[in-house]
Every structure is written in C-alpha cells, then in structure tokens.
Amino acid sequence: MRAASQAQPNIALVKYWGKRDAALNLPVVGSLSITLESLWTRTDVRFVPGQQGDRVSLNGRSDEAEAKRISKCLDLLRACAGVDYGAEVASRNNFPTAAGLASSASGFAALVHAGARALGLELSLAEQSVLARRCSGSAARSIFGGYVEWAHGKLADGTDSVARPLLDAEAWPLRVAVAITSTAAKQVGSTEGMRRTAETSPYQSAWIETQEADLGVARDAIRARDFDALARISEYSCLKMHALALAAQPGLLYWNGATVECMHRVRALRQQGVPVFFTVDAGPQLKAVCAPSAIEQVKAALRDVPGVLEVLDTGLGEGARAIALDWVEA
User: Fold this and answer.
1) What is the pLDDT of residues 174-199, one digit of tens each?
2) Which family is annotated (predicted)?
3) Considering the domain 2-169 in this protein, what is its CATH number?
4) Contact criterion met (CB below 8 Å) for 41 and 96
5) I want to staple 277 with a disulfide (CB 3.0 to 4.6 A). Which of 65, 176, 201, 231 is the partner?
6) Planar angle of CA 96, 254, 20, nearest 5 degrees
C-alpha cells in the first residue's frame, strides 16, 4: 500500500483567480497553463492499516498547516477506497515552497497520483484532476503535461470542472526562465487573496465577463503556434489579474521591486525582436516564456536585474507519473 509519484508545477498563461465554491475549489473562470519540466514535487505515500492519523514530512520537516490540507486530500482518496488507514507521507520540492511558484499544484497532483496508486484505485486522469482540484485548484492542471486548460464548469457538484490537455510539450517546446526575487512565503496566500478580491474588488465582474474571450484567443494561438498572439494574451491576462487584486481592500501587492524591473526588462527584449513574454502569479517570481533560441539571452538579462537571486531554466514537461520510491529523497 505504498507508491511514489512526481508532478510538476504549472504556470497559468490565462489566469485562474476567484472561486465560485470554496469548499469544492470551483473557479469562477476557466484558465490555461503550461506544465514545467525541471521543477518538481516528489511524494511517497504509504497507508498503514491500524494507524491512527497521518504523519507528514514536507522537505524533511513537519508542517502542521500543510499536514491538515494533506490529510483532507487523503480523506477523499480513503473515501473512494472505503478504508480508514492512516498514512505516512514524505514530500519534497526542488524549488521554493509557497512562494508563488505553484508548489501546491505540483504537491497535490503528486499526492493524488501516488495516493490513488497506493490504494489500488484505478482512476482516470480526468478523475484524478477532479480530486486534485478539490485539494488545490491549480493542481487540476498539473495532472497533465504540456499545454492544459481547466474548465470552470457549470454543475454545482463540480464534476465538469476538470482540466484537459490541449497540446503536448514536444509539439511546441517553449522554454521558461524563472526569476526568483524572494524565497520567503508570501504574506497573503492565494485562497485568502481570492476571497478578499471577490468580496471587495470593483473589477470582479469584468474579470469574469472577459475570461472566455481571453481563453479563446489563447487556444487559437496555441493551435497555430503563434508566439506573438500568445505573448499578447498572456501578459494581458497577467496584468488584468493583478489589477483585480490590487483593487481589493486592502489591496494585494504580490510583486516586489525586482519583479517590476524584470517586467520592464522582458518588454525591452521583445521590442528588440527577442521572442519572449512574462507572466507572474500570486507571488514575486517572474516567469519569462521564450523561444528555445532566446533562452540564454533572456536568462542573462534577468540575472542582471538588481534583486534577482537566481534564474531557473526549464522547458515544458509531463504530467503526474509514477517514480521509484528512492527518488523522493534523491
């Protein structure tokens, strides 16, 4: 009753922000993302008959808040299997946790994938996506690789709010340079940020009303491998999401000075003809998406920005998958 899985974080190009049902993690809008390759979460899950409660280790340490979220996720799997066994969970990230790099997405996708296998559950990827979404909204997308769309759905039970793959990573192999401007956990988590925004931002209704059009533009750009069109819609969606959050009361400011300077640097590169665009989630890290031929120039430009601590380089990757047990601590 043991299994290990790996999942990668995903970066939304057309953003997810806001929930229509907090209990089920149902989004108010659909979203579209790319799954990364070099950043990963590896999770080992072992169910122990007769054990009371779960024991959780995250990056080699206990984390009470995360342990509660993990146990709630495991409860969904236990309900599917009809068991009440406690579990031993060891999970490790090779990138900063809770710092705007979608560690919850990769973490809960890996947890659902490994937990289902450990319990012998034969769940489709769509069913795993639904379960992952209930644990962390964007985890629905990390079940899949490459280019992924997560539908907001219309049903009250959320069964139609599921992610689906749009295009394999190999079919359009873009690169991503991630400018790390802080390794600290963000002061306002995404769940609280979304709640505050929905309740107080005057731009919430406009955000919802315009999202379907944005998704259509992004889908068309991906199908056509149209980099310029994808660049325009991705930066537009990013800035629109942050404008929405900035207008909350009190306003949510997830950027720092280096984040803003990185945006200017990316736009300057594009004006020089370099195929690159930026996106930023609920955190201070900037992701610069570019053509493979431009990755070294983009990394050099971002490293030169004061306040950038490190620049990670990744391609687009696979969805959640099984790994050897000894890989978790490797």
Assistant:
1) 999 999 999 888 889 888 999 999 99
2) Belongs to the diphosphomevalonate decarboxylase family.
3) 3.30.230.10
4) no
5) 231
6) 95
